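Data card: per-record layout.
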Amino acid sequence: MTREDLVKNLGTIAKSGTSEFLAKMEEGETMSSDLIGQFGVGFYSSFLVADTVVVSSKHNDDEQYIWESDASSFTVSKDPRGDTLGRGTQISLFMKEEAYDFLEEHTIKDLVKKYSQFINFPIHLWTSKTEQVEEPIEEEDKPEPKEGETDDDVKVEDEDDEKPNVKMVDKTVYDWEVMNDNKPIWLRAPKEVEQEDYNQFYKSFSKDTEEPMAHVHFSAEGEVTFRSILYVPKSAPHDLYQDYGKTTDNIKMYVKRVFITDDFEEMMPKYLSFIKGVVDSDDLPLNVSRETLQQNKLLRVIKKKLVRKALDMLKKMTDEDYAKFYKEFGTNIKLGVMEDHSNRNRLAKLLRWQSSNSDDGPTSLTSYMERMKEKQEHIYFMTGTSRVECERSPFVEKLLKKDTKFSTWLILLMSTPSRTCPNLRERSSRTLLKKTSTSRNLTKPKKPWKFWDENSIPFSTDLKIRS
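The structure for this 467-residue chain is written out next.
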């Protein structure tokens, strides 16, 4: 920058990149699509950790100048060292005593890895490491002759073995190391990414030791443009339901490859909180508060599309993989039926129940209806703690003896499914009817859109089906 640029861009907070950015946002002015790398954006945050900031800059059309400030005032002067930069800008921070931790190598690495590991330009860090190098053995380092040996004996033995006259020592070496050499795989076309790349990327950001069960890689366009990769873990965390409803950090939000946050509330609905992944958008604002970003209407559009893609990913899983998934996360799908009204029909297709004539595993409602008797009008179900308990129920036995055309029914175990059914609408004009309690009459409900509770029907000694 020239001397004039230093005064204009860094001289006052009113002219800093951050305040100008926010001012233009408030005025509704169209912003540049790439603010990353423009000097001045968020510059004054450096005073949070530094007492003094010194900026040395050389422009092709001006001499090299130094801008120096302690956050209360600033000075601009010619650099007494002359032209040491050639061209470019150098920033020096004189750290506050309480901020010395930010000078530690591991702290800087952690910060870069968390926030800037995917940005376009390289970030180099002057690092140290210990290496083993060869060093000549000096005379005093040579081994002394053992008792009964002479110097000649030792010398002949060394010559016969042809041992090098060196030793290995530890030496600390310094060099520049690139901190952000990981390329964001979500920017590549899905057909160009190998399965192993997806697995390694999942482990790198999720800290999971197991490979994911499934993933979906997609880009969305329209009201908002973004790219995303979503993963289904192989195993459910042990505290999945103990912490149900709490904010999770499973979805990482990036804006132009810069990490923004992973603590958005309801980036995914509660029942899909186990989904892990990354979202990167160029349409969201950068360098504004997370609270402001969270209220952005585009974020709600992103959430809606993420949920749809996550449910489609589950739908496309193979039967074998989905059986494993349902064993781990089946309760989440049932909770989703109760909580997510807009996606209830999609979730209903993902439900799995045990069936009276299906001994080889759970069945879907769609499969159940395909096996229904020709004159069976309703979907019958029964709740219980075990399959045996349901099959031996006196209500089921008497019903089957009375009319065998209703020999196909669902078995719902535990209490969650029982609470799920009231939230299921009709399935292809079929109504869910429960076959428990002291009732003997199964009557078609007057309002088929609601769950029919036969407990409201008076007791009858005759067991019969009414259409």
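Known properties of this structure: The longest helix spans residues 319-339. The longest strand covers residues 124-136.

See the next section for split statistics.
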